[in-house]
Amino acid sequence: MDSDTTAGAAGLLDELDHAIVRVLRREPRAAFADVGARLGAHERTVARRLDRLVAAGLVRFTAFLVPEYLGEGLVVEVAVRCAPGRLHETALALARRPDTRAVDVATGASEAVAELIVPGPDQLLSLVDGPLARIPGVTGVHTAVVLRLLLTANDWDPYGGEPTPTRRRAAEGAPLPPAPPVDDLDRRLVALLERDARAPMTRLARDLCVGETTARRRLARLMDSHILHLRLHAEPDVLGFPVEARFRLTVEPRHLDAALRRLAREPEVRHLVVTTGPSNVQGYSSHRSTAELHAFTARVFAQLDGVTGAEAALLLRTYKRAGVAAEAGA
Fold this sequence. Notes:
Arc Repressor Mutant, subunit A; 8-stranded antiparallel barrel; 11 strands; 12 helices
């Protein structure tokens, strides 16, 4: 595993690329020497491989505080229905907005679905009745507020590793621990990590005007909690999962907790929330083929009690993910 050939034009990762990504997905700040020692590769090879993957747009680092876990603002799932011929432009307009975190288009109704964050109900009303309604070709807007976040892409492991603590708790029906307090120093630290997730501790401390011990302690506290998502991101298709689906379920309240536990145990599920509205469960899943998607829906949905409605849609294009607009979409 010491050769230095990297992913080809087809955008596929080879064995060493996958091995590097697997380690850095769980330990994004791991030293190249440590990664190389685990994989039997020289640290310079690891560094060159990662640089090439980043330059090719196949992977990128993300760092952000999760507002749902902090109880900050409203996270809203917005379905924007469009007139024929306006779907692509509408999705682009949504992806350009700084308050959208994700935008995608799927099979089914002619609509673009966005996840956005607003400070509160007044701002949501103003947004729906103003900028969203004024997008050319929009014929309707449906909103659903996220009441509970159970899983994110941070909890999805395409390599079949051990569940994250957050997924384990969701599968057991156990609540997450209280979010630790976050102050201005923490937020400035996260802002630095957004620019360079692997910045040396000495530089982080210098830019924060604190001692290295303080910076190290602050980062460790955030990374040990569930409120900071610091990870190496790669699109599911790059990792061998070209089929993505969005599913919506209507579950009777008395069966809701059991359904959530069951869904959280499924490794294919990479995002899971409870929302307002008739479809009170929404999620995303990733699969190697449409046959695997069919097997997933047939097996999992059939085992859920109290489901009075179920819909699965195949994603056609992702315009924005984790706050970053996709180059192909934009």
